[in-house]
């Protein structure tokens, strides 16, 4: 583990977790180059990350998925569970993945990750993503997120059907009752989130302020008992409200 950085007031504190030292160092260099970001510590597995969270109290955790001792999925679930028990929103977890990890992405989101990025992402997007999850926006690179989620869910359906051919998408009925609690505007917000719109895009489309959008998003998450915006997008697909590659929106009556 690298030595902890000195933290200046107002900076976003980041814990970098990856089992490859070169990647940890590269990510840290990118983050530390920004005046409002600082890497407070580095960890080589999930177990070490949990210890360092207690020690350094980071705002954001950049979390690799496949690591020895404790992988990123288990660590993410423990972090978000601890946050929920303590009634806090941080640290937010931003998962680092590759397209080879597609099967793990949905598990990471369901474990409470606020978003995910490809490891070879542009440095500017990495920096923007850290700031986004720190603000609570949670959906990182909406267009890429939507495409990757669709690919993951299609893979999951194929595995579940025992075939390499795409299985017809079947709405998950467990969400119907909860979705019925949403207001018309909240339903609209959920649909457009699933289609890849950011908070700013939503504000422009609906002719409201970003603050109003965030209020609606928070209400959606609360009513659906979810911890992140990305989880809400997954629910929209699982419930059949929005389906991969289709523009039509479906609501169960």
TrEMBL record:
The modification 4-aspartylphosphate is found at residue 64. Residues 175-240 form the HTH luxR-type domain. InterPro entries: CheY-like_superfamily, NreC/VraR/RcsB-like_REC, Sig_transdc_resp-reg_C-effctor, Sig_transdc_resp-reg_receiver, Tscrpt_reg_LuxR_C, WalR-like. Gene3D superfamilies: 3.40.50.2300. The keyword Mitochondrion does not apply. Keywords: DNA-binding, Phosphoprotein, Transcription, Transcription regulation. CDD domains: LuxR_C_like, REC_NarL-like. GO terms for biological process: phosphorelay signal transduction system; regulation of DNA-templated transcription. Residues 13-134 form the Response regulatory domain. Pfam families: GerE (PF00196), Response_reg (PF00072). It comes from the Bacteria. PANTHER family: TRANSCRIPTIONAL REGULATORY PROTEIN NARL-RELATED, TWO-COMPONENT RESPONSE REGULATOR. This is DNA-binding NarL/FixJ family response regulator. It comes from Kribbella antiqua.
């Amino acid at each position: 583990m690298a030595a902890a950085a000195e933290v200046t007031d107002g900076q976003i504190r980041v814990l970098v977790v990856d089992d490859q030292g070169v990647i940890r160092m590269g990510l840290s260099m990118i983050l530390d180059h920004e005046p409002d970001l600082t890497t407070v510590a580095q960890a080589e597995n999930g177990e070490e990350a949990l210890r360092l969270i207690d020690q350094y109290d980071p705002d954001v955790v950049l979390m690799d998925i496949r690591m020895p001792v404790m992988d990123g999925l288990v660590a993410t679930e423990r972090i978000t569970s601890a946050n929920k028990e303590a009634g806090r929103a941080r640290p937010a977890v931003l998962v680092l993945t590759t397209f080879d990890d597609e099967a793990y992405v949905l598990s990471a989101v369901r474990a409470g990750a606020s978003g995910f990025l490809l490891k070879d992402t542009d440095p500017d997007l990495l920096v923007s993503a850290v700031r986004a999850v720190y603000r609570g926006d949670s959906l990182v690179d909406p267009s890429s997120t939507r495409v990757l989620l669709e690919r993951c869910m299609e893979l999951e359906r194929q595995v579940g059907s025992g075939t390499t051919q795409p299985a017809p998408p079947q709405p998950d009925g467990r969400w119907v009752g909860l979705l019925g609690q949403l207001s018309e505007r909240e339903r609209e917000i959920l649909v457009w989130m699933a289609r890849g719109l950011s908070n700013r895009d939503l504000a422009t489309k609906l002719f409201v302020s970003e603050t109003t959008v965030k209020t609606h998003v928070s209400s959606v998450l609360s009513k659906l008992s979810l911890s992140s915006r990305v989880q809400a997008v997954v629910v929209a697909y699982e419930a059949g409200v929005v389906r991969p590659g289709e523009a039509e929106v479906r609501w169960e009556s």
